[in-house]
Design brief:
Chain lengths: 473, 473
C-alpha cells in the first residue's frame, strides 16, 4: 500500500514531470496535430478497474507516453490553427504549479488574503496593459475577477443585468416567461444562448441581431428595431452582448452604438472579447477597445491568446453592485470579521461556484515574465503572420477571403464550393501536419486559419499555406 | 524584452518550483495556519503597475516567499481544521502539472480523445471504488463527469431536472415565476439557494425541510407535507437535494425516503455529498451510500477529502439524457465527424462552460498512486482521529457535543454559551497553531473541528485539543 508521497519523492517525480514537459515542448512539432485514434481506443488500453494497491508514479509517466499521447490533439503544436489558440506558456505552467502546491482555496479574503489581493492587483495590471477604461479598476465602484471561461462571464453578466433591471426582485421571485429579452448577433458565441437557457429565460428570449455580410458586425439599426418592437410588445430588454472578435470570423461589433441603444432601454451591455480583447496589449490594435468606456462589463481570456494556461477568463464590471447582489449569499459558516468589516473583496460573491483556485499566480507570472513589451511582441507576431497568410490566399485565384482579418484569424474558401472546401480541409487535417477548423459564412462553408500558438513561427504558417495550396485542386 | 521561456529555461525554473513546493510541504507546519495580514497589506508590497520589460522567474519566486506566503492561510497545514479540507497531494499536483504542460482543451472528444476517454474511465473507476450503484457507470444510460465544484453540480442537476419535468419546454420558454419548487434541508449548502437564483427560479422557490435537532437530518415527514401543500397550490416540484455530510455538522439525510417522496411527484433527487461521499472508499463507511440506488444524480469532491487538488468535483447521473438536453448547443464551428457519429462523449454538453481542462489526469494519478487500499487508509485515519477527539470533548464537562460525528467532523461548544465559545475560537485561531471555523446549531454558536488534511497526524489533533482545553476557561 502507498502512503502519502513524501517531499523527497515529490521532488524526484516532480523533476521527472518537469523534464517530460520540457521535452514535450521541444518535440511537440513531431506529432500529428490532430489525434488519429478511433473512439474507445484510448480507454481500451487501460485497466477497467482502479488498482487495489498503489504504485509508483512511473506507471503514470509510462502510460502518459504510451496511451495518452497518441490520443492527444496537440493544442500546443506550432501548426495548431483550429478554433482559437489555448496558450500554455512556461511561466503560466509554473505559476499554476505553485498554486497547486500552495493548495489554498480563495473563496473569501480571509481564507488566503494573498490570493484575493494578488487577483485584484493583476486584474488592475491587465486593465492598464490593455488600456481599458479606468472605471474597470478596483479603486472605484468597478473591478476585475478571474472567471473560469467566457461562458461563465456571459452568464454572470446576465445575472447581474437581471438583478439590476428588476431592482433585485429576480433574486427572490425569479424570472417570468416571456418578460425579459436578450440581444446579440448571429455571430456571437453559443455561450450567450446557453446563458439564456441556464438563467431560466429560455432560448426564446434571445434576439439575433443581423450582421453585415462582409464584416459580420452586428447592425445597430436592426438592434434598434428589435428593441423598439420588444418594448412595444411589453418585454423588458435586459442584456445586449456585443462581440469583439466573434468566434466564426472574428467580427468586431460597433460597441459604442450597441451600448447607447442598450442604455436607452436600461439594458446591460456586456462585451465578449474572449479571443481578441488581449490584442489591446499592442498600441496599434487598440481598436478592439472602441466603445468600452460605455459598457457595463467586459471579458477577455488570457487562456486563449495571452500565454496563460486554461482556465483564466478576465472579467470586469464598471459597477460591482449588481454582480455581487446577484451572486452573494452569506451562510453562517462563512461569516468572518474581515467580510463584515466591508474592507475586503470576497470573490465567491463574484462567481457561480463557492470554491476557487489561486489562478492569479499564473497570470502574475506571465505578466512579469513577458512584461508589456513581450506580450505585445507575442500578439504582434501572429497578427503579422495572419496578414501575410491572408495575402497569399488573396493572391491565389482558386480561393476567396470571406471576412476582414485585422487580427490573426483568416476565413477563406475554395471558389469551387462547399464540397471542395470540405474535402480540402479534411485532406489538410489528415496529413497531421496542421489542424484547421471550419465555420459557415453567409451559409457557405469556410476554413478558419487562427494563428496564435506559442511556438508558431513564420515557417509553420508558410508550410501550412503550401500544404493548403498543393491540396487545393 | 523577454521572449518565450525555452524548454531549457522551463526545465531549470521548473526544478526550482518543484523544489520550492517540496520544501513548502516539509515546512508548512512552521507557519501560522491563519494568515495574520491586514486588508491591503499584501497588495501594498507589490508594484502598482505591470512591468514594461519582462524579468526572469526569480522575481516571482522571491516575492512568493517574501510577499505571498505571509498572506497565505495554509490549507495544507496539518492543523488546518477549518471549513472542510482541500487535499493537495503530491500525485495530484503532478498530474495537474502534466495537464498544464499538455495544454489541451477537452471540450469535444475530437479536441483530445484521451482527455475525454480518461475522464470517463476514472469516473467509472471512482464509482467502483466508492461502490456506487452500477447505473452511474458509463456503459449504461448514466455516466460521470468532472465539474468544477459541488455548486456547479447542484446547478446542472437543477437544469437537468427542469428539462425533464418540463419535457424540454424550459429550454426555449424558460421558467415561470411561482411555478417550480425546490426542496432541501436548512443544513444544506448555500449552493442550492444560489442555483435557484441562477436558474431563474429565485430563492422564493426554495422550501427548507426541517431537521432533527440532534442528527440535523432532513425530516421526510416534513418534506411530504411541503410537497403535498405545493402540489395542492399548483406548483410543480422539480428538485429535492439531499445532503450526505452537510456543511454545518456533517448531517446525513435519509436519502431513500427523500428519493421516494421526490419521485412520487416526478421531481429529481440530487445528492450533494461534496465532503463525505468519498468516505465510501472504506467498507465500514459505506452508510454514506444508503439510498443512492434511488437517486437521479450524485456529487462528491475528490478536491476536498480525496487527495486531488482543486478543482475536481465528481458528478454522476443515472440517465444522461436530461443533462445533455439541458446543456447541449451545437454551433457550426464545433461540428465534427466524431460528434455526429454519436459514438463519443462531448463533455461540453455536460457542463456550463464550453472549455475544459484535462482534470482527469490528476484524479488518475491519485487513484493509481494510492490504490483502493491507500485511499481507504487516508480516510480511515481521519475518522479514527475524529472519534478520539470527540471522546476527549465529551469527557470534559465544560464542553458539549452538538451533533453525531460518524465521520471526521466534530461540532461542539462551551456550555458557558455563545460568547465564551466565540472567545475560545478566536483565541485558538489567534495562536496560529490551529485554525477552526464555526457554525450555528439550533441557533447556538458551535465550533467545527474538520479533520482531513494530508499531513495531519495524531499529534496535531492532540495538540489542538490541548490548546482548546487550556484556552477553554
Amino acid at each position: 500500500m502507498n502512503t502519502h508521497m513524501t517531499p523527497e519523492e515529490f521532488r524526484r517525480y516532480g523533476h521527472q514531470a518537469i523534464d517530460w514537459i520540457a521535452d514535450y515542448q521541444a518535440r511537440v512539432e513531431s506529432f500529428p496535430v490532430l489525434s488519429k485514434v478511433s473512439p474507445g481506443e484510448v480507454r481500451a488500453q487501460l485497466p477497467a478497474e482502479a488498482p487495489q494497491l498503489g504504485e509508483g508514479f512511473e506507471g503514470v509517466m509510462a502510460d502518459l507516453e504510451r496511451v495518452i499521447l497518441p490520443g492527444i490533439t496537440h493544442w500546443q503544436h506550432p501548426s495548431f490553427f483550429a478554433f482559437f489558440p489555448a496558450n500554455a506558456s512556461g511561466p503560466a505552467i509554473l505559476g499554476d504549479l505553485l498554486a497547486s502546491g500552495l493548495g489554498v482555496q480563495g473563496m473569501l479574503w480571509a481564507t488566503s488574503p494573498a490570493a484575493t489581493e494578488l487577483e485584484t492587483l493583476v486584474l488592475d495590471w491587465l486593465a492598464q496593459l490593455l488600456d481599458l477604461p479606468t472605471r474597470f479598476r478596483s479603486e472605484g465602484p468597478g473591478g476585475g475577477v478571474i472567471q473560469s471561461t467566457a461562458s461563465d462571464a456571459a452568464l454572470v453578466a446576465l445575472l447581474a443585468a437581471l438583478h439590476r433591471v428588476s431592482g433585485a426582485a429576480t433574486e427572490t421571485a425569479g424570472v417570468s416567461t416571456g418578460r425579459y429579452t436578450v440581444y446579440t448577433s448571429s455571430q456571437t458565441h453559443s455561450s450567450v444562448e446557453k446563458a439564456c437557457r441556464i438563467a431560466g429565460l429560455g432560448s426564446g428570449a434571445l434576439r439575433k441581431i443581423s450582421t453585415d455580410p462582409w464584416t459580420q458586425s452586428a447592425d445597430p439599426q436592426h438592434l434598434a428595431e428589435l428593441l423598439a418592437a420588444d418594448v412595444d410588445a411589453g418585454y423588458t430588454p435586459v442584456l445586449v452582448v456585443a462581440s469583439v472578435g466573434a468566434t466564426g470570423t472574428g467580427a468586431l461589433d460597433p460597441v459604442a452604438e450597441l451600448a447607447d441603444l442598450a442604455h436607452r432601454h436600461n439594458a446591460w451591455l456586456h462585451v465578449d472579447a474572449a479571443w481578441a480583447g488581449v490584442a489591446a496589449v499592442c498600441d496599434e490594435l487598440r481598436f478592439v477597445n472602441d466603445g468600452l468606456e460605455k459598457v457595463d462589463s467586459y471579458a477577455t481570456n488570457p487562456h486563449k491568446w495571452l500565454l496563460t494556461n486554461f482556465d483564466c477568463n478576465a472579467f470586469w464590471v464598471a459597477d460591482r453592485t449588481a454582480l455581487i447582489g446577484a451572486l452573494s449569499i452569506l451562510p453562517e459558516y462563512l461569516r468572518n470579521t474581515a467580510t463584515e468589516s466591508g474592507s475586503v473583496i470576497d470573490y465567491r460573491d463574484w462567481q457561480v461556484p463557492l470554491g476557487r483556485r489561486f489562478r492569479a499566480l499564473k497570470l502574475w507570472a506571465v505578466l512579469r515574465w513577458y512584461g508589456a513589451v513581450g506580450l505585445a511582441a507575442h500578439i504582434r507576431q501572429h497578427v503579422g503572420l495572419a496578414s501575410e497568410f491572408g495575402g497569399w490566399v488573396q493572391a491565389d485565384p482558386r480561393f476567396e477571403i470571406l471576412a476582414p482579418y485585422p487580427l490573426a484569424l483568416v476565413t477563406f474558401r475554395l471558389r469551387a464550393g462547399d464540397q471542395a472546401t470540405r474535402a480540402l480541409l479534411d485532406a489538410v487535417n489528415d496529413t497531421g501536419q496542421a489542424y484547421l477548423t471550419h465555420t459557415l459564412v453567409n451559409g457557405q462553408l469556410a476554413i478558419r486559419m487562427a494563428i496564435g500558438s506559442v511556438l508558431t513561427e513564420r515557417r509553420h504558417v508558410e508550410a501550412t499555406w503550401t500544404l493548403i495550396s498543393s491540396l487545393g485542386g
